[in-house]
Amino acid sequence: MSDMTPRPKPRPSPESLPYWQAAREHQLALPKCDACEKFWFPPSASCPHCLSSQFSFSPVSGLGKVFSHVTFHRVYRAAFTERVPYVVALVELEEGPRLLTNIVGMQAEDVRCDMPVQVCFEDIDADASIPQFKPRESC
Ligand SMILES: [Zn+2]
Question: Does the reported pTM lie above 0.85?
Fold first, then answer.
C-alpha cells in the first residue's frame, strides 16, 4: 500500500469482474477462447477472433513490451496530484492483447517503445488492486 492519495477504484462490469478478482490476488488473467485458444482484452461476452461465447479467464505471463506511451504532466483528478508526471502506456503482452496501463518504477522520460516490461500490482485498498507494469530489469 502506497502512502499517496488512493487512486479511484475500478468499477468492474460483469464481463471484467474475473479480471479484477484475479488482480486482487496479484494475478493477471485474461479471457481465453475455448474454441480458437486466443486471448483478448478488454473482456467481452464473446471472442472477438471467432465470436465463440465459450471462454475462461486464464493466467498470462505478465510479460510484454511497451507498444506506445504518453506522459501526463497535468493533474486531471486530485488523486493524481502527487503522481505527475506519470506514464500511461499501451503494453503488448507476449500472448498478444494490448493493455492500457501505467509504467511505474522508473523515470517517465526514460520509458521507450519496445521496452520489456512485466506486470506488478498496486493495492488500492483491501478489495482492489490495479495491474501496472515496470521495467523487466528491475525484477
Ligand atoms: Zn475464439
Answer: yes
